[in-house]
C-alpha cells in the first residue's frame, strides 16, 4: 500500500506553489496521485513547466535575463559618465578660460567705461584678482607639464 501524498508534497513534486496547485485542483486536476496530476497537466496545461526539471530550466532562463538586464542598465549608466581624464581637461580648460578673462577684466572695463574715477578701476581690478586667488591653484595648474611648475 502506497502512502498518499499531501497537497503540499504534491506541489513540491510538481515544482509548483501550493496556491497554483489549488488553482489547478479547482480546474479539475486530480490531487490523489502524482501520476494522475502529471497526466492531467500534460493534457490540460499548455505553456507551463510540466515538472521540476522544466521549472529549473525556466528559473535559469529568468536569471539569465535578469543578468542581461542588469548589464544593460550598467552599460547605460557608464554611457552617462565621462572619463576622469576628460573631466579634468574640461575643468582645467574652464579654469584657464576664467583666469584669462579675469586677468583682462580691469583693462576691458576701462575700455568700455572710460572717464570713471581711477578708484573704480582699481576696485574692479582688486575684486578680479581676489576671484583669481580663490580659484584653486591645482585646478589652474592641473593641465601644465610637471617641469613648468615653479
Give the low-confidence spans: none
Number of helices: 8
Overall strand count: 0
State the major sheet.
none
Q: Estimate the global geometry from the Cα principal axes.
A: rod-shaped
Helix content: over 70%
Task: Give a written overview of the molecule.
The protein is built from eight helices and no strands. The protein is mainly alpha-helical and 150 residues long. The protein has two domains: 72 residues, no CATH class; 65 residues. It is rod-shaped. The model has no long low-confidence stretch (mean pLDDT 80).
Sum this structure up briefly.
This protein has 150 residues and is an all-alpha fold. Helix content is 71%, strand content 0%.
List keywords for this structure.
single chain; about 150 residues; mainly alpha; rod-shaped
What is the fold's blueprint, element by element?
Layout: H1 7-14, H2 18-26, H3 34-44, H4 52-79, H5 84-103, H6 105-112, H7 118-134, H8 137-141
Helix pairs in contact: 5-7, 6-7
